[in-house]
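User: Here's a chain of 340 residues. Predict its fold as tokens.
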Amino acid sequence: MTGLIGSITSLTALNLFQLGLLTFDRKGRVKYRNRPFRSMTRDNRRLEIVIRQHLEEIKPLFKKINNIPFRFDMYPYSYRAFFVTMQRFGIYAVLIINDGKVDSSYKREITRNISHELKTPLTSIRGYLETIIGNPLMKSEDRRYFLERALVNVERLEELIRDLSLLEMASDAAKYLEKERINLSQTIFNTKKNLEFRAEKNGVHMELKNLPDSLYISGHPRLLEAIFINLLENGIKYSRPGDSVTVEYAGMEYAGKNGHYHRFYIYDTGPGIPREFQEKIFERFYRIDSGRSRKTGGTGLGLSIVKHAVAFHEGKISIDKDYTAGLKYILELPAGDLRG
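Assistant: Prediction complete.
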């Protein structure tokens, strides 16, 4: 390892300039962390997960180029990373630079988005209640209509607050959440059962394919449930009557010393998402068509919750760009202890 690191640059120089260094083997396992990386942030595990995820995404590019720059924010800091492949040693090296605290505009943008999401239902509630108060002789059926509309917006506020809380939980999960042994199949069965009424109401068929009775994973129950609820809810919301939403278990694969992982395909036969928007749908508050999103409900946080929950479990999620019959996610989660 010493000869390898010497071929990248001097360890003394890296420490002097506070350059973080991570090395991964071909299986994505961390082989080395230098001192500046270990002291770079209080949440090194989360930083490692972000870097590992990006490494998995860019691996195909190393067939053409040897080094790839990457810039990202992990609030409150901004980072630059340089990915280098070293075929001779069979490893990937990543140099990480802490560029300091994220520009306050990032925080302002998040605050502005949250304020906007809160303002819309609050304005509607106020309008409905003022209409009722200003018209004491209003017919009872009209009064009931305005109260029902106000209630719908109260429920929307509750959903937004719940999703913000869950997103914060998923984002910081590595700091304080413990994992436990969970039957993932049961989680998926229960999720399907809880969403069946909504699917039937929308004329959408739900299906589970090749899912065994027991699939065990080391994870957090609420975050695992959030992954499948949000993916299936999105499929139901945006599908048309007669469409279907499916969770298919594609089997378990072996990843060397990293162990086994379960692969799932979650797909629908709905209208899909144009390719140019597919990379953005995991961002907070991102909506392709805000008008349609408000009509069908939702806070614009669901897929961001999914992204962070998957990262907490050290899994991967992506969109199958070759699937044209609707929208298809590829989800991989480590299997953990296989006994039982």
